[in-house]
Each structure stands twice: as structure tokens, then as C-alpha cells.
Structure prediction request, 203 residues.
Amino acid sequence: MRIISDRCPWCGKKIDGSKPSNLDKPNGYAIGRGVNWCRSCGNWYGIKPTAAMFLILVLLFIGCILLKAAPMAGIVILAVCIIIPLLMWRKLPKEKYPTGDRTSAPDLPSCKVSIDWDKKYFMLNYRIWSGYIFPISFVDGSANNVWCVKIDVSKRKQNQMDALMCFLSEEAPREELFKTGNKFVVFYNNDIIGRGIITAEKI
Ligand SMILES: [Zn+2]
Prediction:
């Protein structure tokens, strides 16, 4: 199963990535470089810059320099710099863009969680990046509705991850659900891919 970042950072609904028409284009946004709008909530999102992107820029620079001194090595590095972003493009997390009178709102308060990812998915723990959004459902307690959360990775070990987790929706009953010991399951395309527990309510 390929895990990609395909959920809106505002509402958590799936995004299809199709381009809006020019009529919809708001001032100041260059559509086509990862900037798009969510068909469900109408808010804008873009690709979040990651350390990997800066690393690729550095490699591009090195590749260009090497082209003269060692052409083969330069070509290999440049090819890697082109192929890797093409493969990774849909994996990059999305971030909120200011929309109309809505600013790029800060995230809601987080709790600390520990998640065990399903071992049947190869190296799943290392394929999930900070900023990914997943639907979760609490398996204990009164609420077993599905809510979308954003995960920020703190530590990984084998199949287990320590992370910070926050709801996307202000309507989520955070006080009720973010309680130490509460357990939840994590979904991806209707499969349960992980099981988590809240280890600290407040950070
Ligand atoms: Zn949305």
C-alpha cells in the first residue's frame, strides 16, 4: 500500500488534486506548484517545505558543479534529483494557506500519543511523515465517531511511533477524547493501519 498525503489540512477530506479554472484563481497564489483548493471546504492548501526538499536543492547544486569535473557522477546526481521528487511529490504533507479572511490558523492543542503501526505493511512506521492527516476512531469511551487528526512525529522505533496529535476540527470533543489511556485506531483508505494510545493529554 502506498501511503500518500491526500487529505485537506483544513477539513481532512480527501483531495483529488485536479486544478481549478483561472476564474477561481485568487490573487497571489501560483496554482500549479502544489497550491490548490479543497473542493469540500473551499480553503487553500500548499505543499509543506521539508528538509528533504532542501537536501535535493543542495544535491542539484553539487550535480551541476560535478557536470564539468566528473560528468558521469554529475549526471547520476541530477537524475536522482529529478526522479526522487517525482516519486515523492504526492507524499509531501500539505499545509494551510491563508484564505480570504481566514489566516493560516494555528493548529489546535495537541496530545502525546504512541502508535503501533500494522506490521503487515512494509516499514510503515518510516513511511509516515510529520504533517500527515489520518482519520481515527476512539475504541474506548463514549465517542467512536471518526475524526481527522494531524500527526507530528517525535520518535520512531521498529513499528512504534511517539507523536503529537491534534484534531483538525474545532468541533471535535477534545476535552472528552484527549484523555491519557484512551485508545484509538488509525485508518487509511478504510483499512486499520495503526493502533494508538494517548500517553499525555497536554504538552
Ligand atoms: Zn478541506
